[in-house]
Design brief:
The chain is an alpha/beta fold and 218 residues long. It contains 7 helices and 9 strands; from the N terminus they run ααβαβαββββαβαβαβ. A 9-stranded mixed sheet has the order 3-4-5-2-1-6-7-9-8, sandwiched between helices.
Length: 218
């Protein structure tokens, strides 16, 4: 999946993947990470997610990375912010109210960029990537995180042959395969959400679960 795919989606406003409310699993399970207020939380492939506002409201600094400048601009404008703009190495940086979004390629991030990050919230990153990219994504992510960093990870699991992603199906077994060499993995919730997703039912999906994990980097 090329970068242009996501850039076109944002430019054409084909953003059904965007949630118009705070993710309930974030509210319900964030405390499982036991993160003290004041730390910086990383949200990869953040889009214009309202979850960043919730994390900020809990007393955290927020760092996002997003490929599309359209999404970055929309996040700040739609939430009433006029961000400070700057250049940050390989990224254009927009910042307001202790929320920073780096506009550019996730794979250009370095360990220095995430030096202050205490935890990661991944609701829409891993599931946005096709199988060939997921291993590369995980390897790069763990390479730029400090040991003991925690990740709250939300994935979809459904028969992949019934629907082409994104969002892609990522089973608990695949999460284990991707992360077991790098992190302690704890599955804290498996929810049957088929009835809550009529749009996916209409696309032919017969089974749909959301899995919530807490990962701790070795």
């Amino acid at each position: 999946m090329e970068k242009d795919f996501w850039l076109r989606r944002w430019e054409r406003e084909e953003t059904a993947f965007h949630q118009g409310e705070i993710n309930p699993y974030l509210r319900q399970y964030w405390e499982e990470l036991h993160q003290p207020c004041g730390g910086e939380i990383f949200v990869p492939l953040c889009g214009k997610s309202l979850d960043m506002l919730w994390l900020r409201s809990q007393g955290y600094d927020v760092l996002g990375v997003e490929l599309s400048s359209v999404a970055v601009q929309a996040f700040f404008e739609e939430n009433g912010y006029v961000p400070k703009l700057s250049k940050h190495q390989r990224f254009d940086c927009s910042e307001a109210d202790r929320m920073r979004i780096l506009c550019g390629d996730f794979f250009d991030l370095s360990r220095d960029d995430l030096a202050r990050v205490h935890a990661v919230y991944d609701r829409a990153s891993l599931v946005a990537l096709p199988p060939a990219m997921r291993k590369r994504y995980v390897q790069h992510l763990v390479s730029i995180l400090q040991p003991a960093t925690q990740i709250l990870l939300v994935t979809f699991d459904y028969p992949q042959n019934e629907m082409s992603g994104p969002p892609f199906a990522v089973s608990a077994a695949e999460v284990d395969e991707l992360y077991r060499d790098f992190a302690e993995i704890r599955l804290i919730k498996k929810a049957d959400v088929l009835a809550d997703n009529p749009r996916l039912v209409a696309r032919g999906v017969s089974r749909l679960h959301e899995n919530i994990f807490v990962l701790t980097i070795n």
